[in-house]
Structure formats: C-alpha cells, structure tokens
Write a structure and sequence with these properties.
Layout (H helix, E strand, L loop, with lengths): L9 H46 L4 H4 E2 L2 E2 L3 H7 L2 H19 L2 E5 L18 E5 L18 E3 L20 E3 L20 E3 L14
Parallel strand pairs: 3-4, 4-5, 5-6, 6-7
Antiparallel strand pairs: 1-2
C-alpha cells in the first residue's frame, strides 16, 4: 500500500489568513475611531454641561464629584431655577416694599396718641392701629384723601371726629372693641364705605339715619 501525500496550497491559506487579518485590523480601526469619537463626544457634552452650570450660577461642588463631571440633568432642573426664583422673590420684595410705603402701622400700649409725623404722610392709603391706649383720632385725618382702610380695633377711642366724613375713598372702617358711644352722622358721607365693624363698643345702641 503506497503512502498518501497531502498537498496544501499555501498561497490559498495565506490569502485567507491575510484576509482575516485585514478584516480584524479594520474592525480594530473602526472600534478605535468609535471610542475616540465617543470620548470626544463625552468631553464635548461635559464641557457644554459645565458652561450651562456656570451660566446658571450653579456651584462647581454640585456637578464635579471626585474629579469627574456629573452630567445629571436634575442638577440643572434643581439649581438652574434658583436665579429665576431669586428674581421673582426680588420682584415680590420690591412690590411689598412699594406697597408698605402707603401703609401706616402702630401697636403697643406705650402709644397714647398718634405721632406728630403722621400728619405729614397724607399719601397713606391704610392705617392699621391696634392694642394702643389712643383715645382720639386727630381732625387732620380729613387730609388723607387716598385713605382706603382704617383698621383701629382694640384701642381706647371714645369718639369718631366729624372730619371722618371727608374720606370719600374709604372702603373699610374697623373700630371694634373701643369705647365708642355714638357714631357721627357725617360717616354717611363716606360714599364708598363697604365694610363697617363696630362690634365690642357696648354703648352703641343704634346708627345715625345717614349711615
């Protein structure tokens, strides 16, 4: 029995091998490009995120953890609204400040009469005076033509001056829990009066016909 001789075509094997090597190198090249592109994209994303955080005034400690950038969008949602809220609060505070310019407030038993400086503030729209020992309302109240609200509860006021009838824009008058015994007919001249509280003045039995 003769020997069998196996013959290999090395050129064919080499061609197949080179093709595989070439394909493998191509895959490696594409993977490298993909990783580089992904890395660049990530760096770009992180940088844009940092710029957005700086723009919105977010402190670095909120988005930089152990040297790595945390691109969690919740950071922008949580802290990005702060400047806007601060702006709203600032506007609200400014509005309140402007409003308070037209409001006079006084309380405490140390007060037995209205301060002299009050007569110079005829632009006021509201008086809020309570828990004082004040007994009389000054006649110069007639000068307060813009007065809308007179909250004078829990004082010692024993009468309302006839000048109160000059307050054509008065809408609210609260003189509850004072020492009033009667109401002047001139109160009927307050044509815009919408609310009148006389409760707690035990000696008032009836209102004038004009009221």
């Amino acid at each position: 029995m003769g020997h069998q001789v196996i013959i290999f075509d090395f050129s064919l094997i080499r061609g197949l091998w080179e093709t595989r090597v070439k394909k493998n190198k191509e895959r490696q090249r594409k993977e490298k490009e993909r990783l580089e592109k992904s890395s660049l994209e990530k760096i770009k994303q992180e940088w844009n995120f940092i710029l957005e955080c700086r723009k919105k005034g977010i402190p670095q400690s909120k988005y930089l953890k152990n040297g790595f950038v945390d691109t969690d969008e919740k950071i922008l949602d949580t802290y990005g609204k702060t400047p806007q809220l601060q702006k709203k609060h600032a506007l609200s505070d400014e509005a309140n400040k402007e409003k308070n310019k037209f409001i006079f407030q006084l309380s405490g038993e140390k007060w037995t009469e209205f301060p002299d400086s009050l007569k110079e503030q005829i632009y006021l729209k509201e008086w809020h005076v309570y828990n004082t020992l004040i007994q009389t309302i000054p006649a110069y109240i007639a000068l307060f033509q813009d007065l809308r609200v007179l909250e004078l509860s829990k004082n010692q006021i024993n009468y309302l001056p006839v000048e109160i009838g000059c307050l054509k824009n008065l809408k609210v008058l609260n003189v509850s829990f004072n020492n009033l015994k009667s109401i002047p007919p001139e109160l009927g001249d307050c044509e815009n009066l919408e609310k009148l509280d006389l409760s707690g003045n035990m000696e008032i039995t009836e209102l004038p016909f004009e009221v």
